[in-house]
Structures are given as structure tokens and as C-alpha cells.
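Q: Start with the shorter request: fold the first protein.
A: Done. Sequence, then structure:
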Amino acid sequence: MRRMPRTRAVFGLAMGNLAVGTAAFSVVGVLPMIARALHIGEDRTSLVFSLYAASYAISSPVAVAVSGRFSRRGVAIAALTLIAAAAIGSALATNFAILAFARVCAAIGGGLFTPLAAAVAFAISDPAQRGRTLALVFFGFQLSQAAGVPGGVILAERFGWQAAFLLSAVLALIAILLLAAGLPARIATPVPSPRQLATAMTDRRMLLAATVMALHSGGMLVVMAFIAILAERWGAHSGIVVLMFGLGGIGASLTAGTVIARLGAAGFRRIGIGAQVVLLPLFSLPFIGVVPHSGLLGWLVLAWAFLCSGVMIGQQFLLLTRYPDQGEIALSLNGTANYLGMAVGTALGAWAFGMAGSDSLGLTGAVVAAASLALSIADDRRSGRHFPRL
């Protein structure tokens, strides 16, 4: 594949992840608005995201396995089309049930696109550039939190919460155009099958690595799912706080390739998980009687995202290196674990919120993050070998 077509393809895949990320997390920034508009409690509104995450977790490996014999370009475009349609459906929702159904459809599209994008990016890259290419494709996901989600909040404040979902629909349509023009119809990636999926489900090493990701994401979502509520509690602007998270994520993506090259993917992953264990308790400062300045939340979120949100990049590099013939299935199971962790983390956060208030969220998430760190150490030891750097 020549350099220019490859560059266009990587840009299109990154744009697709921008659409997926905006569709996934747009609800986070407008959670209080949706709760008021649909006349439901804020803790129950968080279930809209839990439902998305659970639907992604269940559908992703099955969708990837069933679609394995089709053109990668065609599958990518179909997945983004479903996301765009679901986003429009979310914007038109007049009650909780309609919104929930639309979110399930968006999750199916995202669960199909994201592992496919990573596998294609890995396949079309030179071996020495694979870590950096994965970081660039994942950069679109981080950009969604820096620009897509905050942009949705700004639009929602001006035009209503529905505008946040319509923004993700527009981004998905743009990504479709880019991929239709820049992604080759035939790409040499391992073609997954239902049989490979069944085999992967019994691979203990793969499941252990996926559990590490599930716990890391779960700890993050205990706090992130309620970030708009925390912003109100701390006297901060939710749009600015979400923007700071996105900016930190962009920094993580831009530096991930270099850090992985120096420390290796396993070391990169462990540092990100360990940093979360240290930082999450700071979100519970009011719980122990410390009243922080309202501006502190944004800077805390920035550091948290920069150090912790790039763990997925290192995780993807590890899986694609360990399982070169099952890359897409491994990534799909990892995506399942990631979103299952998000669903459980959001539900756990809702429980902690209901039991002890928003000030307990950081401590709750830190416990989950500590479990992820312990399992990541066990996973690295069990692998029995060092994985190549860039």
C-alpha cells in the first residue's frame, strides 16, 4: 500500500473513532440536561451509558466474527451508518425507552468499528511504525473527548441536549465519506470466524489481559460517568472539565508511541494503571473534609486523562503482538471487556452515589483501579516473555 493512500486510510479510521467516541460519551456531558428533560433521576440517567457499554460488550465479538468474511471497508461504512442513524434516533427520543434503544444501536455500530479500525491500522503499517499508527487511530477517540463531547455540551446549552447527539451523527457521516474515498476494498487482515471466537473465549491469557482492561475502564467510569455532576458539586463548568479530559487524552495519544518505544507496551500499560490508583482518591477530597478550589477539578482531570487514558493503546499493541493471527478477535474481546468494565463501573458509581454521595466516587474507583494494577502485574509475569518495542 503506497504511503499517500495509507495516510488517507489512517486519517479516515481516526475520524471514524472520533465519531464513535463522540457517540459513546456525548451523554456524559449532558447527563443533568437529559435527566431534567426526561424527568428521571440523575442516577438512573447514568444507566443510559451503562446500557450502551453493556450492549457494546455483548455485541462486539459476535458482530466482528459474523462480519469477518465481508470487505473491511464495507463493514466500517456500515458500522458508521448505524452510528449516525442511532444518533439521530437519540436526538428524537421523547422518553427513556426510545433513548435507550437508540443507544443500543449506537453501541453495536461502535463495537463493530473500533476493533476493525485497530486491526486495519496495524495491518497497513510498517512493523516499526505500528505503535505510532495505533496511537494516531486512537487519537480520534481521544479527540472526541477534547472536542466532540465538549462541543456537544456547548451546542446542548445553546440548542438543547439533542444537539450533542446530532453532532455525533454529522461526524459519522464525514467519516463515511473519508473511508469510502481512502480505504481500499481489500485489506490483508486475519479474517475472524465464529469458531475463532469460541476458541478465544477459552484462552486464559487473553481473558486475563481483557480483565485488566475491564477493571481499568471500570475504575475510570466510576468517576467519569458522573463528571458533570462532580463539576456542579465543585463549582466548575462541566464543558470545561470534559474539555480538560479530552486535552489530556490527546496528550496521551501524541506521546504514547514514543513512551512505548522506550518502555515497552507492558511498562506503558502498568504506569497508566498505577497512576489511576494514585489520582482517583483525589476526586474524593470533599469526602474527608477538604474543600478544593473550583478550578482544581479541571487540572486534576487533565492529569488523570494524560496519565491514564492511553492505557488502551498499550493494551492493543500487546494483544496484536501476542495474537498476530487472531488480532481482530483479540481486540474485539478487549473492547468487550473495556465496555463491560464501563458498564459495571457506571453501575458501581451509581450505587456509591446513592449510598454516600458524589464525594465517594473517587475512593470507589481507586479500589477497582488497584485490582486492575494487581492483575496487570500477574498478566505480565504469566506472559513469560518480553514483547517487542517499536
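Q: Next, the second protein, separately.
A: Sequence, then structure:
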Amino acid sequence: MQDINFIAETVKTMCKDVESTETIKKIVGSANQYAKLRKFPMDKSQWTDEQLDMYFTYIERIIDMPTEFTQGDFDTMNIEEKLSAVGIETENIESGIQEAGDMLGGVVKKMAEQNKYREDLKCPYCQSMVYDNRNSKKGEKSPDFTCSSNDPAICGGHTGKWRKSWWLDNSDIPKEWNLEGESNDS
């Protein structure tokens, strides 16, 4: 269960350099659209830590978005276009009936992915939970693992702007995670 006051204070802190109250409202409104698109519960107190992290990441990206778009352009964009503008890929949803073979193959693949998901990983810098992103990566450049602490005062691996992240093909993965032999392909 999430603390609504914590969420509000975090968003307020993230938006501290945004000068216009109207822009802050639009940023939060867009983030709420993103949460709705991702089918997060309407009640933010019911969000998982991963959903909350995705929400904060979206806000962070939209605040840091390059000013290639005018405010008018951005206001007329749909949520998929906004996500693309801040570098978050979305899946195209096509209508129609899924073939039975495709459905079965998808179920088998999903079960295999769930089997490799790890919930027992701890950050070596702050002992916070580490998110295993291998099942939800949207691109090759996305990290395989991310520390759940977004506070540089708590996590020594935090850069001040980005939380500590790891990739499977990197040499800094803690040995105590016992990931030898695991890869992105399964």
C-alpha cells in the first residue's frame, strides 16, 4: 500500500524547477493518462512499487523532455505520441482474434519468463529491493535490473539523477545474485 502524501511530495519535488503551475498540471495529467493506459488501479495507494516507479520515471522523462514540441503541439498529442516523445515505447494493439497456436506459444513463453524473474535481489549499496526488469524491457538499452531506491542519500549507487542499474552483460553485477548462466534470451 502506497502513501498518497509521499507520492504528492515526490511529484512536487520532481517538479520544483518547473516554473508554470499550468505546466505542472499538464505533466501530472499526462502521467495520470499514462497510468490509465497501463491499467494501473485508479487508487494510487493500491499501486505496486514497480507501478509507482514507472509513474515517477514517466514524470521525470516528461520534465526532461527536449523542447522540440511547442506546448500547443504537446497538448494535442495523444498519450501514445507523448510516450514516444519521451522515449517510452508502447505496443500496438490490433483488434482481431488471436490464433490458438499464437496464444498457446505466448502462454508458454510467458511462463518461461516468469520462471526466470527474481524477487530476492538486494542492492549492494543500500540493501533495497532490486527490480528485475528482464520481463518488461522495452528495448536493448533498458537496464535488466534497477535499484528500487530513488534517493541518492540512501543509495550510494544513485548518480544523483538516475538510480543504480545493471545489465546482464556488464561486469558489475553482484556475484551474490548468482546470475551466472542467465541471459536475456530464453
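Q: Describe the second briefly.
A: Residues 100-177 form one domain. Residues 69 and 85 are 9 Å apart (CA to CA).
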